[in-house]
Amino acid sequence: MSRSRDGAFAVSLADVLAARERIAKALIRTPLVLSDAASKRAGRPVYLKLENLQRTGAFKVRGALSKVTNLTPEQRRQGLVCASSGNHGLGVAYASSRFGVPCVVVLPENANPHKMALLKDLGAEVVCYGETSDVCQRKADEISQEKGCSLVHSFADATLIAGQGTLGLEVLEDLPEVEDVYVPVGGGGLISGIAVAIREQRPKARIWGVQPQHANSMWAALRQGRVVALEEVRTVADGLAARITSELNFVLVQGYVEDVILVSDQAILDSMWFLLEHAKVLVEPSGAASFAGLLAHAKRGGPAVGVMSGGNISLRQIEELRQVQGS
Description:
Blueprint (H helix, E strand, L loop, with lengths): L12 H11 L8 E3 L1 H7 L3 E5 L9 H10 L3 H6 L1 E4 L3 H12 L4 E5 L5 H9 L3 E4 L4 H15 L2 E2 L6 H7 L1 H9 L5 E5 L4 H11 L6 E7 L4 H8 L22 H10 L2 E5 L1 H13 L7 H12 L7 E5 L6 H12 L1
Parallel strand pairs: 2-10, 3-4, 3-6, 4-5, 7-8, 7-10, 8-9
Antiparallel strand pairs: 1-2
């Protein structure tokens, strides 16, 4: 379970602060910018947290560095393995290369080719297996057992969640009066960490998750009051295509997050084009989901933050998405 006997959550503000002490020198403190275009579109002040400018092009490196820096020297020598749609693997590969640690990344067979190329550039061993996140995860589990290397789960890990929460610390430091924070949700690692970091210091702030309509594992879990596995996942946002969350993430989201908002793939793509053309921010579909959720949410008020979680997309992929959308 994700709570101790005294009712405390498995990840605390102290854990997030400790993670920042370990990883701050290896990170870019990404900017939080007030976007005039996004604000006009939303009808309220909108700030964009630009994790597309983070090392490896996504927030995932925060959690990966938190995990690696928390391992013993012997565990590092044994190496790391993870399952990923791309960005988590990039984060783990970067953290591994920084500390000279061997790294294996299991990708789905239909993985984003741009992310696969970036992984190989970082020196990771890439294994393509299956087509869904849970199948890739089982393969990573097997490799971990066979090789004795440490498994770095993409979201169901308290140390990793604490690392992701460092993003929330930065948001609150840069915008203490923030009212609403919109966070893309796949398995829930990012929103879990952000929610702990912000709500423990500013209880009045509201944290909102955003998921694609057909990749809504956290939304479904909140409605049913338990972790549920989706039969099928379909979304243009490959980084949010998690078929199931975990008990750890579910309990944190249930305790700290207002709700999860569902958006269509069309709304995600529309937000992606808007951010590129009007806000001059290049994000992948997963990163644009937060702005789509902000726009879909009827509530209006004071300062809101959209977490631009990643920007690992090529010009060729952008053109392909435009062609598919226009067909």
